[in-house]
Amino acid sequence: xxxxxxxxxxxxxxxxxxxxGGGSGSAPPPKTxxxxxxxxxxxxxxxxxxxxxxxxxxxxxxxxxxxxxxxMHGTSIRIYPTVTTxxxxxxxxxxxxxxxxxxxxxxxHSPPPVISSFxxxxxxxxxxxxxxxxxxxxxxxxxxxxxxxxxxxxxxxxAVDYTHWVQVNPAATTTYTLTATNGVSSSTASVTVFVPKHxxxxxxx
Length: 205
What we know:
Immunoglobulin-like
């Protein structure tokens, strides 16, 4: 009887140890979901199209992504926003995720874009002029240098990008106007390509 009682007591102690995490098993490691300690934009507000830096600090060795920008590497990224935008940062690891947001505002007092030059030339990269004589249909390269703009267009051509030049083939004398805008203000500059009725002219000037 005594041995049976001792056996039941030992079994009860073993079951109690197992219930409390004792025995040969071990408790699972604590979960460590990521945290976003900071997420900021500088400068903010910013002029449309100007350089802005998004910076962040996270813990938990997560994968970091930002809405509209994709997966991030490092702790910052340089962007050139043109409109007011809210960016959401998501930090995620196997134990969970965390988010943070920052809204980048456009400065309403943005200065107008600066058109440093706008000229016409007989070849890409050639010497440009604000007045040029050509034969009807002869290729002409319009070139420009612009800063502080988010959108460029040339009359008779349409929207252009920042490749700094576009080819045209005027059949008659044409004045081309470059318009640079930044969502707040705009600037313009013009060049005239002369197509004389007679083909004798001099471009040396």
